[in-house]
Write a structure and sequence with these properties.
Largest sheet: 6 strands, mixed
Distance between the termini: 44 Å
Structural class: alpha+beta
Number of strands: 13
Helix content: 10-25%
Length: 427
C-alpha cells in the first residue's frame, strides 16, 4: 500500500525510476525520463498525446472507453454524478432515504484464455475462475461507493458462491435465461449483474474530492492470506492486449476461433506458450493470465468503517488503468509519486520496447488495482487496517445475492453484437 497526493490543476502525474515526473494534461501515465516514440524530454519527461494508433485500440478495444462515455452522455447521471458508480432513486420501494445500484460487468476476453487452456489440456478447471472474475468486477466497483450488500446476482456461480460463503459472504442467486449465440460468440462470454439497495447518506459521492488529499493504493500482486496461490495482479481488464502480446502464433494457427480475422496481423504476436514459466514468479504464463481477480471489498468495508468521512473517493483501476482517476473531480491534478514496483507479469510487458509506458499505465493497473482518496491523517490508519483485514478476512461478513454496469470490449470474441438486459422488481 502506497500513498500519493491530489493537487489543484489538470491531468495526472506519476513517478519515474529517476523521481522525475510525467506531465500530460490529457492522460499522463509513468514513463522513463527520456524521449520515446510519443514525445520528447526536456528536464522533466513530457509525453504528448499520441498521434499514431495504439495497438490496444487497433485490436478493437478501448482503454478509456471514450466512445461508450460519448454514447451515454445524454443519460441522466443519477443522484450523485461524481460517484464511481451510477446511483439511482429507490424506485422499487419509493423510500427517499434509500437508493439503488445496478451494475453489469464481466470477465471480458479473459474467457478466451480459459478456452485455450481447456483446448490445450482438456482441463475444465480454468473456467471456474471466470465466475470469480465476473463477480468481483461488479462487487468491487460497487464497493467504491460504499455498497457492501446484501447483493443480488444472477444464478450460475455455485462454486464461487460456496467459496465466498466460507469467508462469511452470503450469496443468494436469482434467475435468468441462457441464449444460444453459436454463430455470434466465437468462444464464450462470462458476465454478471449485481444489484444493491443502500441508504443514500452512506454513498461515497466523490463530491468531497479536493486538493491536498492523499491517495492510498492497494497492491494487486503477491498472495493474500485468503488466496490459495500467488496472484499475478492482472485482474480482468486489458486482456485484449495481454493475450495477444504474451502468447505465440501457435494459438493463432491452432485456434482460429480465438481471434477475429479483422485483427489477424495483430493476433498472438508474443513469444510464449501457456505452459512457459513467468520470470520472477512461481506461476506459468497461463496461470498468471488466468489468475482469479482479487476482491478488495472486505478491505474497503473495514477501511470505511474505521475512517468514515475521511475517505473522499475510491477508484477501481480497471479500464483506464492508473489514469482512471481522471474521470472524477474537477480541476484536480492527481500525483502518484510512490507507485509499487510492478508484479512480474507487468514487468514482462515493460521489457518489450514496443510498449510505451503511456500505453501500459493507461490500460493496465500496473501494480495496484484499487485506491482510496482520503484525508492525509487517515492514510496510516487505512494502511494498518488493510494489513489486519487481510489477515482476518474470514470474518468480514459481506452478504451477496445475484443481480449488473460496465461495457466489456469483446472485439475478437463477439462477431457482431450481443444485446442483453437485466430486470429487477420488488413486490
Amino acid at each position: 500500500m502506497k500513498v500519493a497526493v491530489v493537487k489543484k490543476g489538470p491531468g495526472v502525474t506519476c513517478p519515474t525510476a529517476t523521481s522525475s515526473r510525467i506531465r500530460d494534461s490529457v492522460r499522463g501515465p509513468p514513463g522513463p525520463a527520456k524521449a520515446d516514440r510519443h514525445g520528447t524530454a526536456t528536464g522533466e519527461c513530457y509525453i504528448c498525446p499520441v498521434s499514431e494508433p495504439i495497438r490496444y485500440e487497433d485490436r478493437g478495444a478501448s482503454a478509456d472507453k471514450s466512445e461508450v462515455h460519448k454514447a451515454i452522455a445524454g443519460e441522466h447521471p443519477g443522484l450523485f454524478p461524481g460517484a464511481f458508480c451510477k446511483v439511482l432513486p429507490d424506485t422499487l420501494a419509493g423510500d427517499p432515504a434509500q437508493c439503488l445500484l445496478i451494475h453489469a460487468d464481466g470477465a471480458g476476453t479473459k474467457a478466451i484464455l480459459a478456452y485455450l487452456h481447456w483446448k490445450e489440456t482438456g482441463d475444465f478447471s480454468a473456467f471456474k475462475g471466470l465466475a470469480q472474475d465476473s463477480l468481483v468486477m461488479n462487487v468491487d466497483d460497487l464497493a467504491c461507493v460504499g455498497a457492501f450488500g446484501p447483493f443480488l446476482i444472477i444464478a450460475g456461480y455455485r462454486e464461487c458462491v460456496a467459496l465466498l460463503a466460507g469467508h462469511g459472504i452470503e450469496i443468494a442467486s436469482g434467475g435468468g435465461e441462457t441464449a444460444d449465440l453459436g454463430d455470434t460468440v466465437r468462444t464464450l462470454v462470462v458476465d454478471s449483474t449485481v444489484v444493491a439497495r443502500m441508504p443514500r447518506q452512506r454513498v461515497i459521492t466523490g463530491d468531497r474530492l479536493r486538493p491536498g488529499l492523499a491517495i492510498v493504493g492497494l497492491y494487486s500482486g503477491g498472495r493474500a492470506t485468503y488466496e490459495s496461490a500467488e496472484n499475478s495482479g492482472l485482474g480482468s481488464n486489458g486482456f485484449t492486449m495481454l493475450r495477444h502480446e504474451f502468447l505465440s502464433p501457435h494459438y493463432k494457427q491452432a485456434y482460429p476461433e480465438a481471434y477475429a480475422p479483422e485483427i489477424a496481423n495483430l493476433a498472438y504476436t508474443g513469444r510464449h506458450r501457456l505452459s512457459d514459466a513467468l520470470p520472477g514468479s512461481s506461476l506459468t504464463i497461463g496461470q498468471a493470465l488466468l489468475s482469479p481477480t482479487r476482491t478488495y471489498a472486505p478491505i474497503l468495508k473495514a477501511a470505511i468503517a474505521a475512517a468514515g468521512d475521511a475517505i473522499a473517493a475510491i477508484f477501481h483501476n480497471t479500464g483506464g488503468g492508473q489514469a482512471k482517476c481522471l474521470r472524477f473531480g474537477r480541476g484536480l491534478l492527481y500525483v502518484k509519486d510512490d507507485l509499487f514496483d510492478p508484479p512480474p507479469a507487468f514487468k514482462l510487458l515493460q521489457a518489450d520496447p514496443a510498449h510505451s509506458p503511456r500505453e501500459l499505465y493507461r490500460t493496465l493497473n500496473m501494480g495496484h488495482r484499487m485506491e482510496l482518496v482520503c484525508e492525509p491523517g487517515a492514510a496510516a490508519g487505512i494502511i494498518a487496517g488493510y494489513r489486519e483485514c487481510v489477515a482476518l478476512l474470514a470474518g468480514h461478513g459481506i452478504e451477496i445475492a445475484s443481480g449488473g454496469g460496465e461495457t466489456a470490449d469483446l472485439g475478437d470474441t463477439v462477431r457482431t453484437l450481443v444485446v442483453d438486459s437485466t430486470v429487477v422488481a420488488r413486490m
